[in-house]
What we know:
CATH topology of the largest domain: TIM Barrel
Subcellular location: Cytoplasm
CATH class of the largest domain: Alpha Beta
Order of helices and strands: EHHHEEEEEEEHEHEHEHHEHEHEH
GO molecular function: 4 iron, 4 sulfur cluster binding; metal ion binding; RNA methyltransferase activity
CATH architecture of the largest domain: Alpha-Beta Barrel
Low-confidence stretches: 349-353
CATH superfamily of the largest domain: Aldolase class I
Organism: bioreactor metagenome
Strand content: 15-25%
Main location: cytoplasm
Radius of gyration: 21 Å
Protein name: Putative dual-specificity RNA methyltransferase RlmN
Structural class: alpha/beta
Mean pLDDT: 93
Bound molecules: S-adenosyl-L-homocysteine
Oligomer: single chain
Strand order of the largest sheet: 3-4-5-6-9-10-11-12-13-14
Shape: elongated
Amino acid sequence: MKSNLLGLFADEIVKELGTYGFEKYRGQQIAKWMYQQGVSDFNVMTNIPNAKREILIDNFEISRPTITAHQESADKKTSKYLLTFKDGAAVETVLMKQHYGNSVCVSTQVGCAMGCKFCASTLQGVTRNLTAGEIFSQVLHCNNQLMVEQSTVNTIVIMGSGEPLANYDNVLRFIRLCHESYSLNMSYRNITLSTAGIVPGIKRLAEEGIPINLAISLHAPTTEIRSSIMPINNQYDMLSVINAADHYAEKTGRRVTYEYTLIENINDNDEHASALAKLLKGRLASVNLIPVNPVPERGLLRPKKHRVVQFLQSLQAHHINATVRKEMGADIQAACGQLRKKVLEQEESACIK
Length: 353
Ligand code: SAH
């Protein structure tokens, strides 16, 4: 079996090429082709002599996923891809063209084990973790798409399917790899990681010395409500999550974002808004309200527009920094896991037929 170089740091590439007599500087050369040029064919690496290219072709590979499905929003600003890896595992990646640049939302696991009641990614549990190379290949895929318009990915949100802190080592490797100068040279400030609230993971992240943005999926103002929609709250209570996030903010100087999915009659009334404001008062934090993308099998509904506005105003009246997430690509089922689910169901029904 050929050994995959995608996901390795330059010095690790050199080690991997070990006995084949490659000079040390070839590590960075190959890394630049892979990560900056998005190349997966050794033949294209023209600054590497033919004989060495032959060795690479015979023994190594740069493994990239194939595109199984693609949806584009009517305004063409959001593209959602279902990418399939060698073993058949498929994940969603979303490319969003925003006024401040191009943002890509990457998945970190195949499925998810968190069991949040409003999320489609978790309906069938988790199959496996993605490797750092597999997470990185989602960004490369988007960069390849953007090449035609001479553009690149500017920001990365780790908010696709999966719980990133449940796949800690691979996700951290991915983040550090994005930052390397021979790779994307991306500032840590342009990367946001969203977690359902794995307290030990948040504490560990605070010690890494990488000032990425942290987003916490809070979604409720009380522990009772949170437990009823997010089972993880029974393991790590929301107060311990907020404490860990405070510690993160203190260590990194970065403002923490609290994501709050608004669900009709569950967490969207004025009392909920006041309780949320009280909870977050005085913290280096802001709230991002997300009107829920309804998942039909969950029976959870999106509140009416005026409710969303009222909730926002209520938070602002309490001097809480809050915004409503701009809706990108609602017409293409951009909510977590919805495209993957649809394709899997189609495949299943095709099998039955
Ligand atoms: N597991 C991580 C990251 C993936 S989910 C986390 O929980 O944060 C990314 C964000 O999308 C989370 O805030 C999640 O709660 C939210 N989300 C999931 N399904 C949604 C839906 N149907 N509508 C709105 N937001 C949703």
